[in-house]
Every structure is written in structure tokens, then in C-alpha cells.
Sequence to fold (505 residues):
Amino acid sequence: MRVTVRIPTPLRSYASGEGRVAVEAETVGQALAGLVERHPGLKPHLYDGEGGLRNFVNAYLNEDDVRQLEGTETRVSEGDTVVLVPSIAGGADGATVEETREADAPDAGAPEPLPDLSREEIQRYSRHLIMPEVGMEGQKKLKGAKVLLVGAGGLGSPLGLYLAAAGVGTIGIVDHDVVDATNLQRQVLHGTKDVGRPKLESARERLADVNPHVELRTHETRLTSENALEILEPYDVVVDGTDNFPTRYLVNDACVLLGKPNVYGSIFRFEGQATVFGAETPEGERGPCYRCLFREPPPPGLVPSCAEGGVLGVLPGIIGSLQALETIKLILGRGEPLAGRLLIFDALEMSWRQVRLRRNPGCPVCGDEPTQTGLIDYEAFCGMPADEDAAAVAGAGDVPEISATELARRLEVGDEITIVDVREPHEWEIVNLAEHDALLVPLGELDERMSELDSSDEIVLHCRSGARSARALERLKEAGFRKLWNLEGGILAWADEVDPTKPKY
Ligand SMILES: [Zn+2]
Fold:
């Protein structure tokens, strides 16, 4: 049978950039074997040491999870599509802020009667009020609703703007980041004048202008196992717009424990995913949670973040708007929520596909006999620190490092050093060390191009900030290279310490 295997964006760099391949196969397992035969670089990403499919890569035959069919033994028909769905984390940007500032702690209480609308509000919401699906009652429900946005970044921007405009009465935002110039390409909640300000400050200002009738509650903190239940508790709906796996799992587990719907969205390059966890499916079944979909996170570094891989500017606008729409539907109790379905959007193809998600009765959090009944250490669970900067440092581990200043000094005195840049060609176009004869070998091509390197040379590996080159170093070490250094802080550090004319990105 001729079937199409679709390769998700984060894995395409291991498949010569291809988005799909056609293979001959009788079963799903054979189709995937055919894919790996065509692109051997994919193998470690899809299979574990025992030859089983990895936990964080789900395979679907057309719309159905093969785990709910016959696994890799599931038979395929002519023209079928096998869809690989990996976990992607992209959303807001993360950074660390020590201080914890929490605005007026919201009080939980019995459900209050729906609030009335003022004359001004009636005028403002008139295009809602004349729709029978919303009407006066629906608009009052929106006003009475409390929605928590986790993240005020790419996804949080359209979410905040549309939910405020639509009249959601109470909007909470958790974020601990400041606005950075690199955010402005997609985080439309913030403007040029806001660079350097806390995102919560610019969000508060912008949203208060969009709709002064909305009560904004800002939680300037990183969501942790210690504070998550308390922060989430007063809200009716939680919307996940985070960018890292530990926070994704934390938000999921806290929502399951509190019995709150979790409106999920994630983005990477030009691909987005959206669903609603923890809500009833249109069939009246209890919907799945994130853990039912991805029981375990991918190992650190395997799936690049938006900061590493990039994201198309409009994409968070589309996925975040979908999340806003689903949130409003949940509040109104109208239509069919995106529960039990994962929507996958490919902006380059302009294609939408949908796969069915089912609750896993064996899920450790929402299963019939949950084995985890409280929050855990999610950074340890994901084997990584929650933020990008620390991840880059942790990635270094026992990797020998050289500072940009030291490398410059050694080049200056004429030491023979081979510089290997493991970034992608389009990143080389932005900035490079060509004047020092740097060799471009993208991480994904390292295995096949290793013969271009001489193990007797002293080699300094670099990428943007040091994480990818640390992985490259590990691989070269395994292959027997010994005289290796990782450029600490990557080419960004070079721009800071050595050559300020180099652009940073
Ligand atoms: Zn679950």
C-alpha cells in the first residue's frame, strides 16, 4: 500500500527539510521503518534503545492514535496518511526574575449571580448582544468569568487582546519576563516603547485601554509547584501560552487536580497545535489531559524552543486567537469545544488537520487510578531548568568551555584553532565568524560530515548561545575527538565581549 508519512516541523531538519514522504507499507510500523530508511537521521528521535516508538512522539493513522488501534501493527490502506505528532512547547518566552509580586489575591467563593451590564457596556458589546448565541445572558457570563493566561508572550498577546475586548470580566496573567526587542515581531501586546519593561506592566496598560471594564490581575512570578494551585484556583478557565515543557506539565497537572479546563496552544516555526484539555468531549466523555497525549517530555535539547528554532510572526496570532475563541465558547457553553481533538495547523501548506485524542485510563494524573495526586518537581521531571538561559548553561555540564575573550586572545597570538559553527545556514547569514575561517556544519549534518573534521586539530564549536554546540561537542567526543572546546555563550558572547559590530539575534 502506498501511504504518506507526514513529518512534523521540529523533525524536518533531520529529514532534509521534507514535510512528507510516500512509502510502501502494510502496517504503520512498516511505514515508519520506510521513513527512517529514507531519513536515517530521524531514527534516534523516533525510536528508543529497544526499538519502540518514543513516548513523546505520537503516531496517528489518519485521525486515530495508533495506540488505540493496534499500535505499530495497525494495517494501513492505500492512500492513508500516517501523522507524527511530537510535543512542542513554544509560546511565550521565558526568563528568570527573582522577585515575586502578586497583585490582590483573588478570593474564591461560591458561584456568584451573573453581574449586570452598564449602559456603556451594553453599547460596547452590542455586536455580541444581537447574536442569539451570546445575547444578554452570554455577555453576563463573559463578564462573570475569570480566565487565567499563563504567559504574556506570543500566544498571550492575541489572547489578552481578544478576551479583554470580548468582555471577559476578570483576566489574570502570570508572567515574569521583560519585553525584549526580539519579542516585538510577534508579541503584539507590547510596543517599541515597552522594551525593557515588565511584560505585565505593558500588558496591563494596553488591555486597560482596550477595555477599561475588565479587571486585570497580574501575577509577576514564575509558576511553580509551590504556587500553581493557589494561583490557578480562583479562575474558571486556564489558558496555556507557555514556552517550556516543565511549565506545560505543571499547568496540566494543576488543572487536572483542580478540575479546570486547560486551553492549550503551542507554536513552532510555522506549525501550531491547539486543543482543550480537561473539558467534556462532544460525545460526553471526560476529555484527555496533556499527559494522556504526551506521558513524558522529550529529553532536553531534542525539541528546539522558539528561541532556538524561531517562529513565524503571524502564527501565534492564529493559534492564540483559536485559544481565545475556545475559551469564549467554554464560558458561553456554546458549540463543540476542541476537547478530544488536537488541531494541527501548517501555515506553509495552509492546511489544518485534526487528530482524535482520548483520555488514557492509565494516565498517571487523570487516569482511573492516578499514581500522581499532587504536583511534582517539573524541572527534574523534564530533566532541565525551566528557562532557556539556564538550559543553555545546564547543557554545558561537563563540557569544556572557552570564553569568547580567551578564544580571541588565542587567535590573536596565532594559535591553530578550527572554529566549527553548528548553526543553520540562515543563521550564518545573519552573523558569522568567517573572518576566522569558521566552518559551517549544522548540528543535523554533523554525523554525516564528521569526516570533514580532523580529530588531531584543536576545535572550538559554537552556535548562537552555546546549547547546540554543547550537544555537538558530546557527539564529537563520542566519535573519538579529544581537543574540543565549546564557545561559552556562543556567538552572542562573541558580540558582547569581542566584536560589538556583530549583530545579535
Ligand atoms: Zn491524562
